[in-house]
Each structure stands twice: as C-alpha cells, then as structure tokens.
Amino acid sequence: MKNGVFLLVDENPYLLKELEGILKKSGIGNTLKANSADSAWTLIRKQPCHCVIASWEMADMSGLALLKILRADDKFRMTPFFLTDAAFTKVKVLRAGQAAVTGLIVSPYDQKTIQSKLSRLSEKGVPAIVQKAQSAVDKGAALMNAGNYEEALAVFEGLINESENAEYYYNIGFIKTSKGEYTEAIDAFQKATELDRLFGKAYEAMGRTYKAMGKHDEARKCLQTAADLYMSKEKVEDAEEILNEILQISADSLNVFNSLGVLYRRKGDLKTSLRHYTRALRINPDEPYIHYNIGRVYLDMKNHEKAREYFENAVRIDPGFEQAKQVIQAINLGRI
C-alpha cells in the first residue's frame, strides 16, 4: 500500500498538511489533497486512488457522505477508506460501521497510531485491492463469462472462507440462479444484502429470483427496495426499469405509482408524474402523502389553486400534517 496513491480530504489546511507530513514520515509520499468532499469525488474519478483518509466534519458534504457515495459505486466499493474526527461517539461509530468504513482515526493525529492502522491494512489486505484477492475475483469472473459455473463457484466460495464480502455472495447467487438453484441463490443474495444493505444489484437479483419462483409478494418487495436505492443514488433509468417491472407483477401497487411520480417529477416530466400520482390516489384515496405529492406537482406547474386544494386534502385526512399546513400558509401569504 505504501506505493499506492492516498487521497487526503479535509477543509482544515493545517490538519491536511499535518496528515500529509505523517504519511511522508511513514514512507507514503504519493498523496493527493482535497479541501472538500465534492473536490475529492471529482479527483477520485479522474485519478485512481488506493486509499482515502477523510475528515468526518466538513461543511458542504461530510466524510461519511463521501464514504457512502464511494461504497455505492462498484468501482470504489472496496477502496480502503478511513474517517477522521476529534471525537467518535457511539452513534458515529455505528454509522461509520454501517457505511463499511475501513477504520477510524482520531485527530489531532498520532504518527504511531496511523502507522499501526496502515500497517494492519497492508498485512490483512482488503478484498479487490490486495493482489491475491483481486486475482481470485478476476479468475472467478472469467470462469463465469466462460460458462464454467462450478469452477467459478468454487473460487468465490474460497474467497468467502478467507474474508466475507457482499460482492462474492452476489456472484454466488448469480451462479446459483443460472443453474436453476433458486433457494440457494436467495440465501446468497440475502447474505450479500446483510453485509451491504445498500447493494441495489443484490436486491434486484433477489427480486427476479423470487419472481422466477412464483413468489410475487417477495419479488415485489425486493424490487421496490432496489428501485428505492437506485433513486437515492440518482440512478433514475435503473429505477424506472425496475418500477415498470414491478407493475408487471402487481398492477395496483400504490408504492410503485408513488415512486414513479417522484421519479418523473425529478426528471421534470410533471404531466407523467401527475398521472402516476393520480393512479396511486385511485388505489388509496385516503393516503395524505399522495395528496401532498400531487400538491407539490401543481406548485411546480404554477397552479397554486389546485396545489392548495390537494394540500388541504392532506390536512383534512391527517390534521397533524405540519408540512402541508406550512405550504398552505405560504401560498395564502403569497410567499410561493
């Protein structure tokens, strides 16, 4: 790892310089620096980085948010990522762990501590970074592409025995599905999502496996989760494809029509958004959030009277709907 490129991210120039100096003393001279998470995200897409060390507390985007963005991208899913902070609370430790952080570093920095963490990283290796693991992953993928599923399965199962990894279980699930072994495939996909709860592809594959088994309720739930994850990552086209697939399973799904309404509103296609929200409303006329969402679309259309009508419907159904009340007040006062 010492020969790799380390990306250091901190809006505090003093701490950034201090960290760079410690790494140089530790034999790591190839570093890139960014003074914001946004700049770091731009850099890492242009320049391959072998490790990221980022401050948790930054104004525009936190280090944790940057970590989640990287983990959501297949290219950077296994890139070692350390978060730094002056004090890690239990909540922060849990949130960092859930986001698959490699390690935590307390600032101000201590050279021995940093050297220890980086040396352990080198010794234990990180899947898809260490040559041995990368070689096995490449071998397994090549075997899958060649249709040698049994051999590929053995490779990925061997990797799991060394270090559990969501991507490995996903590949095993894919192989099992290709062989028609659906129950085993579901077990593998479930394990992948347990290890990485943001693994949209695993939920998508699991949903399609359930669909092949004729278990439509389970399929719909998994596909909806995949679509929600894709939408949260701004993968609109992937989300749209899955949502339309869910409609083939269940033509009266409230959540699907609502999600499609959200999706098309984000795309700026307000008429299509309104059509999907209206279909959701037909399924459940007493769902306040659907009325609220339709009101927002009418606001975007500059039709304040129609917007007020739907916001008032939302409040009538749910008198405690504060967001709807606030928008009504803003319309009445001419602030919108």
Task: Explain what the structure shows.
- The model is unreliable at 123-130 (pLDDT under 50).
- The relative contact order is 0.05.
- This protein has three domains: 6-124, Response regulator (Rossmann fold); 127-251, Serine Threonine Protein Phosphatase 5, Tetratricopeptide repeat, CATH 1.25.40; 252-336, Tetratricopeptide repeat domain (Serine Threonine Protein Phosphatase 5, Tetratricopeptide repeat, Alpha Horseshoe), CATH 1.25.40.10.
- The chain starts with 5 loop residues before the first strand and ends with a helix.
- Strand 1, helix 1 and strand 2 (31-34) form a beta-alpha-beta unit.
- It has 336 residues and is of the alpha/beta class.
- The protein is flat.
- Helix content is 66%, strand content 7%.
- It has helices at 13-25, 37-46, 63-71, 90-98, 111-124, 131-145, 149-162, 166-178, 182-195, 200-212, 216-232, 236-249, 254-267, 270-283, 288-300, 304-317, 322-332, and strands at 6-9, 31-34, 51-55, 81-85, 103-106.
Please give the domain count: 3
Uncertain parts: 123-130
CATH architecture label of the largest domain: Alpha Horseshoe
Q: What is the global morphology?
A: flat
List the secondary-structure elements in sequence, H or E. Answer: EHEHEHEHEHHHHHHHHHHHHH
- As for the CATH topology of the largest domain, it is Serine Threonine Protein Phosphatase 5, Tetratricopeptide repeat
Number of helices: 17
Q: What is the residue-averaged pLDDT?
A: 84
- Sheet having the most strands: 5 strands, parallel
Radius of gyration, in Å, reads 24 Å
